[in-house]
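Reopening this one. Same input as before:
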Amino acid sequence: MKFFHGRMRALSAVLVFSVSSIFPLKSWAVDQPLITPEGEERVVIFHYNDLHGRIERLARMATVVREARQQHRHVYLLCAGDNFSGNPVVDQAEPRGEPVLKLLNALGIQAMVLGNHEFDYGQDVLQRFVGLARVPVLCANMNTSDANWDAVKPFVRIETKAGPVLTILGLIQVEPDSGIPSAHPSRLSGLNFLDPIKTATRLRGNLAGDGVRIALSHLGYATDRQLAEAVPELDVIVGGHSHTVLDSGVVHNGVLIVQAGAHGDYLGRVDLFLYKGAVSRSEAGLIQLESVEPAADILAMVTEFENNPVMERVVVTLPRPLVDKTELGNWICDLLCRRLNLDIAFHNAGGVRVKRLDGEVNLKTIYRMLPFQNLVVQMQLYPREIRGLIETDVAKHGKVDLLMSGLRLRIKRTPAGKIVNIDLLDDQGKPLDENRRYTVGFNSYIAASYHFEHEDPGKSLEMTTAAAVIEYLESGRPPIPADPALRVVEEVHGGDLSGVAARSEDPLETGKDPFALSSPAGNLMADAMREESDSQVALFPSRLLVPGIRIDAGSFIGPAQVRAMYKHTAKNGIQVVKISGGALQAFLLERVRFRKGLDVQVSGLSCSFYRNKNGVVDRAVCRLADGSVLDKEQMLRVVFCDYDFDRYYQIKPAVMEPRRKDLTLETLLLTYLAKHPRLDGELSAPRMVIRDTAVPE
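Same output, byte for byte:
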């Protein structure tokens, strides 16, 4: 046990394993009896975060919380932010967000912190929400001196007649480059945001005394760890924003950190045991809400809100699925060009909130895909100004993140990765006229957040992106087929390629859906990670593959191609650990179940996953590179992407090796390519598959 400032803390998770899973998420059973030893007082805290409008989940939460309140005296429900944006039943309600307000008031929560998406409807709507909510709304690092925000408090102290005191501090994330949360800048006018860690440190005096000290955080898991280091007086950090599934919580610097994923898939539960007024020990876990019976009264309210036949109206039937954000975003831009008579349209990838459209698409789905109500802004731009926009985009994201229509980009880089030229081409591949102004449209988020030089200040077309898409689809005009062609091509230009580039005998592809298959590009990165770290097995996150990239056989593969195929490799590094074969196989199975696809790309290993008769993946067979079946007792040296290891994976390795802070995934891969100037055809062979059979081969 760890002693800190005279208070004893120990984390002991009560676990209930799902019958159908070899390596399930650790979770509380809903009806699990909990016994408090004599002399201790129990405080039960339920928590959720990043609901994003999935109001149907609140009915299931109500069942769990109400049952607990029948068993225990001190039961609290906390929300760690982002109730809005993601469900048109909520986003298109009048007033906007009204279903969440009424349901939270009926449910009875004790505190919530503002998340960045709480600002999506504008300050007037949010101020109304805060004023009518029967719950303290917290945000300590928002300076409201220039705006009317008296109802938002930095912290709340909850006292009971004969029980412990809860002090709850609220914090919202702030982007380091802009100094504001991840929201449309125009919706934050008059508000100033402070560094959350410095704010919490300054307010730590409010955490003095006995009772329970909680940070209700919409900072993300990585920043929560920094908060635990800066303010170790905290007993618990109830987190949100990063959508991290912390199945039994993590103790960092003596502080318990919890987070419950997103979208109401889970309800978190923390049991704190107090002895003589101070927390002595804690238990944490997650409840999988899918199996919980919804509370009848809350479900009736949800059903009434969702009973909107207009939202079920089909606006288009797609001839084939659109399977990733690149394809979806480009299709959206195509529709904007047609509806608004634009020469060129742009849309940011982060503003596309679904990953697939298929068959009949109704209004609800369009609003779910484009929930932010950003207006379309039109500007008359010269090609040099369009280049400025692209360069700003690359500076922000390390690659071209914008999706587009009416434009093709050919980007030339040096072998070291520096951009030397951006060719702007029309749909026929002809260069744009440098002396002509083009009519360009993009959403108001891009207009406010991307700072580039342009003569025309632009004008709002007073129409949201979603409305423009819907109007075109319902206009009776011919449907626009999705164009699978890549609209951004990168080339290595000039310099000596011998030491930094290789050629592949087969095409290198990332795949339309990186989670659907084991791809050559994913295999390549995993091979490089394994060899350069001298590990037996390597796991590379599929989410870091850029969908739809193809590099033809015989082409050079250098820095430009690396940046085209992968995301965030210039920032992320590696973490090498030693774990057992059984733990590795269980981890892979759990990630497949969580992602409902292939969450990682592998090297040194091949795995087949099998669905049972209910369509649930419940079995895995893994083999090492030599063909031998994975020995569950064997200790293996395994290399992970460090960011995902820290933020998303709940692994307790036998050994965790020190990190090389100077080694990024990009550097590692380029070093590997220098050693292997010709890549063989083994990269094309699938290494991970999901099979529709209940019986392994």
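So the earlier flakiness isn't reproducible anymore. For the record, The chain has three domains: 45-306, 309-489, 510-691.
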